[in-house]
Write a structure and sequence with these properties.
4 strands, mainly alpha, 66% helix
Length: 521
């Protein structure tokens, strides 16, 4: 049977009452979150763009002047100490931000939405101003989620709707960061929500489209990358995709292991010293290899323009890989999203140059291998294949390569799985919880609804509610069937495609959601 331990009867009644109209409220509030989260993500992009321009100007100004170079390094140390102070002020701004959002969705973490938004905006801009190899996409997801949380708090919404609005904000943040609304929707559902429920899908789509509109209003209609990929890879070259997928899967597993190793290496250093290391390295690279600074958009342009030989591609790949590890491992506010796409692109570029040299591949197909490797590398690291495929398709402005993108992504996914490489954001979340000594979700006494769709092969089809082995400490409050919502009775028979709605304490949400999902599979 299924039981509930109610700490606040009024809270329970309100959650159940609001659930009846929540799907309509989510559309309206999702639109509000999308516009606001899109605006914050656009502001963040503008701040990072300005920071990068100032960085390039400063590097040009100090070249050849010993005194100014010394002053530049002193300035980098000052910025590093500022970032370290920001992280001490609000630890939740450290790193990408995506694991923190996932942790809050599961009930393990609690973020102060105002402090996170302010700290991430300032800290992320400072990191790019210093040249660190960090991306804007993970922080945009966190910023968007915090906008969703803030709007929920300001509107006094229940905890269930707050989580949905955080998902809306996360999808909106990614959509605005990449000009990729479909990828924003898929990432929010596949990686954050871990569920493709109808209520979440509709509201997240509204938020992502609204955020994308805000972004395109400011930055224009162009895709993030301006690849010239006119030709589709011929079918007689598809055997190369098997080799590329295996290579990408191995490299993705190595990236995940190296990322966790870099965090362990920094762990015993004082926080201020941790920040100083990547900033000083950025100063050295700024004088010797400025192309490797920042997220890496300039590196992508340099690659697909065909200006590099194989030796140059491999050198930039190695430097970017190590610099990204040292930047992210320090705990500086910034993501791995864009840098890992850059690294994947360079792996694909090196593979393509070898295929052109030794396998008779047409040089015009080089960019095909670049975008294929980006999708595969993202999939191997994040383990979100659908998002990876659609993301690269949207970013490059072409849907004609879906078959080859899917082939490489699936192979890379399987290889990473066989190598027992854990998804990077789950590993990072475990690391955060371990460092903070958190073993179970916070008990706030609030109630929350969770849903699960009964799949067609589920063993519970045809069973009565009284026969279900439901998770302990939850209450089944509704069975949604088509457009109807049934009040569950002991003799209510479960059918395929039913949506089970259960009420639980927030501290039990993650466990009950997982158990309910397994029951419906």
């Amino acid at each position: 049977m299924c039981f509930v331990q109610t700490r606040n009867e009024n809270d329970t009644v309100r959650v159940i009452k609001d659930a009846k109209y929540m799907q309509y409220a989510l559309v309206v509030n999702g639109l509000l979150v999308g516009v606001a989260a899109g605006g914050i993500a656009v502001l963040y992009r503008i701040m990072l763009d300005r920071g990068e321009k100032i960085l390039r100007w400063m590097l040009a100004a100090v070249q050849g002047n010993g005194l100014m170079i010394a002053g530049w390094f002193v300035g980098l140390v000052f910025v590093a100490l500022l970032v370290a102070r920001l992280v001490r002020w609000e630890p939740m701004i450290s790193g990408s931000g995506i694991p923190q959002v996932s942790g809050e969705m599961k009930g393990y973490l609690h973020q102060n939405w105002v402090k996170v938004i302010v700290g991430k905006l300032v800290g992320g801009t400072a990191c790019i101003l210093g040249g660190l190899s960090l991306g804007r996409e993970g922080p945009s997801v966190q910023l968007g989620a915090m906008v969703g949380k803030g709007i929920s708090r300001l509107l006094h919404r229940v905890k269930t709707e707050e989580k949905y609005l955080m998902i809306c904000g996360a999808g909106a943040g990614l959509a605005a960061a990449f000009n990729a609304p479909l990828a924003g929707v898929l990432f929010a559902l596949e990686e954050i929500h871990k569920n493709f429920s109808a209520a979440a899908l509709t509201s997240v789509m509204v938020a992502a489209v609204a955020a994308d509109f805000v972004s395109k209003t400011v930055f224009g209609l162009d895709s993030v990358f301006h690849f010239s990929v006119g030709r589709v890879l011929p079918l007689d070259h598809y055997w190369l995709l098997l080799l590329l997928g295996v290579l990408i899967g191995i490299c993705g597993a190595a990236y995940n292991a190296s990322t966790m190793a870099s965090q362990r290496a920094y762990k015993h250093l004082p926080q201020s010293f941790r920040m100083v290391i990547p900033f000083l390295l950025a100063g050295v690279l700024g004088l010797t290899m400025p192309l490797t600074l920042g997220g890496g958009h300039a590196m992508i342009e340099h690659l697909y323009e065909g200006n590099l030989l194989l030796s140059g591609v491999l050198l930039l790949l190695a430097v970017k890989f190590l610099f990204s590890l040292l930047s992210f491992g320090s705990g500086a506010p910034g993501g791995i999203f864009f840098p890992l796409l850059v690294i994947g692109a360079y792996i694909g570029g090196a593979f393509g140059l070898l295929a052109i040299r030794y396998c008779g591949v047409d040089p015009e197909l080089l960019n095909n291998f670049i975008i294929l490797a980006m999708a595969g590398y993202f999939t191997a690291i994040v383990r979100a294949p659908v998002t990876g495929i659609i993301l690269i398709a949207e970013m490059t402005g072409s849907l004609s390569h879906l078959l080859s993108l899917a082939a490489v992504s699936i192979i890379a996914y399987v290889v990473a799985y066989l190598l027992k490489s854990e998804p990077i954001y789950e590993s990072l979340l475990e690391n955060i919880l371990r460092n903070q000594g958190i073993e179970e979700p916070e008990d706030t006494g609030e109630k929350i609804l969770t849903t699960a769709v009964v799949q067609h092969a589920s063993a519970i089809i045809g069973k009565r509610v009284s026969e279900l082995d439901l998770p302990y400490n939850c209450l089944l409050v509704a069975v949604r069937r088509g457009g109807r919502e049934l009040l569950p009775r002991g003799d209510t028979v479960i059918m395929a495609s039913d949506t089970l709605v259960a009420l639980a304490d927030t501290k039990d949400y993650a466990e009950i959601a997982a158990q309910l999902g397994e029951l419906c599979v």
